[in-house]
Amino acid sequence: MLQIRGAVLEHIGSPRPYATSRPINVTDVDLAPPGAGELQVRIEAAGVCHSDLSVVDGNRVRPVPMLLGHEAAGIVERVGDGVGDLRVGQRVVMAFLPRCGQCAACATDGLTPCEPGSAANTAGTLLGGGMRLSRDGQPVYHHLGVSGFATHAVVHRASVVPVPDDVPPGVAALLGCAVLTGGGAVLNVGAPRPGQTVAVVGLGGVGMAAVLTALAHNDVRVVAIDQLTDKLTAAQGLGAHETYTPQAATEAGVKAPIVVEAVGHPCALQTAIELTAPGGRTITVGLPPPDARISVSPLGFVAEGRSLIGSYLGSAVPARDIPRFVELWRAGRLPVESLVSSRIGLDDINVAMDHLADGIAVRQLITF
Ligand SMILES: [Zn+2]
Ligand SMILES: [Zn+2]
Asked: Separation of 52 CA from ligand 1 center, angstroms?
């Protein structure tokens, strides 16, 4: 057993502010050695994502106690039996949806989430089953097969993608969720052509990554939309051509052939549908609460030949797509660093959740 420090969510649905109620406890946790097909990683950096907050506030029901964090990168410290293609000392990005590579869903090349991978994520276990985390002999659940808000993690081989040493830890971490989800939606589903416009509704880490990825294309116009003017200013800083509040975008009659919704709220999806041009596609990547509903006129979809497409994890295959994003970053066309709004310590995690809930952060990066 290795004693590690990690951010363990003890209670779901605690009252705000979390800085006071402190639902997440930064504490000592025992980490079992990697089993067959697994590896141990020393975490270097982890991003705080809205999907972490969704566990804290109960929008996404998961078992507790759970060691949170699903967007992280680190250095391989130990490999279990059967992990022959990774070496100790190599930098890896965590991919929060492991792919078994054998189920019917895996055969769709990213269009549908791996079935055993999704089941393990819901159960709070690793892909191979069970937990490697415990406290006082009692199991602690894994978050999406990663549990990256910790000094170390044991993960399944299918939960990591190696990256070259020149990719800094903060960049590598963000590739695993924000970039793969927002950027993947643009690359894999939107696939903009020169002269087209991409509109992005919701400018958190995922939305901003969609903006950056759209801007990495030649001759693509990018429209960024958010309720908060600070986010619009930030998007302008990244190079977005036009920025609007949702109301202003509707009033201005903005229409785009590719619209990415990255909020996970029914109102944002309605806005995204409204802004979609005839023949265009509304791509939804946000994760709303399970009981959320929208009201739309089906006629518009038929008469205007529009479509609404759901995209989990940007319809990405991490092992295929992370190297594509690394190449864009290395060419200077995808400044992933610019998504980091602050660097914090693990002990700041409850305050970080407040900042996320208030919408005043793009990506807060925990460094170790
Ligand atoms: Zn995430
Ligand atoms: Zn699978």
From this structure: 7
